[in-house]
Amino acid sequence: MRWRLSDTPLFLQLTLLASLSMYAPALHALSWDNHHEARVFFYAGTLGIFVSLLFVITLSAGRQRRRGGLGNLASVVSAYFFLPVLLAIPFYEAVQTTQFLNAYFEMVSAFTTTGAPLFEPGRLSGTMHLWRAQVGWLGGLFIWVSAAAVLAPLALGGFEVTASAEPGRGEVPLDAYEPMNEAHRLSLTVLRLAPLYAGLTAVLAICLMITGETPLVAAIHAMSTLSTSGISATGGLEGSEAGLRGEFLVFLFLFFGLSRLTFSTDTVTTGRRGLHNDPEFRMGLLIVLGVTALLFVRHWVASFDFAYEETVGAALRATWGSLFTVLSFLTTTGFESADWESSRAWSGLGSSGLILLGLSLIGGGVATTAGGVKLLRVYALYLNGVREMERLVHPSSVGRASNQSRRIRSRGAFIAWIFFMLFALSLALLTALLTAMGTSFENAIILAISALSTTGPLAHSAAQEPIMLAQLGEAAKLVLAAAMVVGRLETLAIVALLNPALWRD
To answer: How confident is the model at residue 62 (pLDDT cuts 50, 70, 90)?
Structure first.
């Protein structure tokens, strides 16, 4: 029987891809004469490919079992929990001075595009920083593909707001799913999105190198921007050699985290075509411009106790620092502008933690690499609120909108509210667990929001003093790792796994 890659279970396809990706850091380490790290990544990648092929050969000899429509969803959940074990092996062997739990936590953080900094930048070599950014980049591509090929057909991941089917069921009954159709959809999505994703990353990396950045840092920042992981080898963009020009380039590519329509129309969430008609993109722009304007105006309204120079240059630096940082945290990337401190001084903010936490909670667009509650859900709740206020004034009024908008206002808003409540309950439970493990209440809230919104840099940016994740206990690290997976997958997707049809042939 002829073997085809599409016949291989999704989880094994991911292990093969992860093993193959280890050759890139091996070549980088070899080019810098770091033979220990080169051997570690080469041996780990070769062993991973060998073991994966053994499983593929074993499974191809038997009869393929038909699962329900949630089979690929189970593979996605398994990938987030178990694939980091494979990814952590070369990291652990290369660092040599850390526990395997720390390596696993680092890989979960990278693969879920959270980017929570467990290690100080100076402790890791350039190859290790490249591996962290590469894992986050692959995690971003995995989100792009799984959103269209797995979550959208099941009305999950934000698609339940506009879909007419129940979350976790999709438009097609689970017993009518065809595995061949799922494999075909998955392969088509990869062929459509992977070249675009790689091309955008290459363009940004080349542009950053033109502005004066070193090739390694340019590649890491480009991968971290497209995947919204916020991983950096220099501690952030403020330590970059590209300066303001580099920040502007990154700023342009951050817009891919506001709406999927910026790069694809394969999963249109509303009936209105065009980026200018996309409610997510418009709401994202409104939030970015609105928060920036409020911070700028606050200089004359509420910052009487803070003395700061009122020059055109200072005003421009404050505006740019706010504009970049607000968009970065709204897309859950977490990069700070070098002028963010100037912006805080201009507006008289003693601490910007609440603003950054709120932006990260809102999050970016549906089916993008951004996390958070998502702009489409916020938009659905906004429409419902406006409609309820109209009915208070005119109880007999009729909504002036299409069927799609009416569905978003009513059923979509109801599902969005359910998700918001599940998110709030998860946040409360995670905060309570971290507090019980010895973390202070304020730090526990910051860490909980950071994990559930997949915005790792919040641990350094939102607290009065940077939270040292390496000093947390083992139990707290495991809880945070699980929370990152829950924040990436969203609670509704995990609840959908309880559907009995998943375990039925």
So the answer is: low
Residue 441 CB neighbours (<10 A): 11
**Nearest by Cα to 188 from 152, 145, 227, 142:** 145
Tokens representing residue 78 in the block: 């398994």
Look at residue 198 and give its three-state secondary structure. Answer: helix
Q: Given phi > 0 = left and psi -120 to 50 = alpha, else beta, which region is 118?
A: alpha
Q: Name the token pair of 250.
A: 């990154």
| Token pair of 303 as six digits | 């910052």
Q: Give the residue ranges of DSSP H helices in 166-242.
A: 179-210, 215-227
Q: Which residues contact 255 (CB under 8 A, 6 or more apart)?
A: 262, 281, 327
Q: State how far the Cα of 121 lies from the Cα of 341, in Å rounded to an integer.
A: 21
* Mean of all residue pLDDT scores within the chain: 86
- CA distances to 15, 129, 178, 227, 456 from 136, rounded to whole Å, are 15, 11, 31, 6, 12
Residue 448, number of CB atoms within 10 A of its CB: 26
Average pLDDT over residues 381-397: 84
**Radius of gyration, alpha carbons of the chain:** 23
CA distance readout (Å), 454 to 276, 290, 330, 381:
27, 23, 11, 22
Q: What is the mean pLDDT of residues 452-472?
A: 91
463-466 long-range Cβ contacts below 8 angstroms, 24+ apart: 463/353, 464/351, 464/353
pTM of this structure: 0.92
Residue 47: pLDDT band (50, 70, 90) is: very high
The SS3 of residue 402 is coil
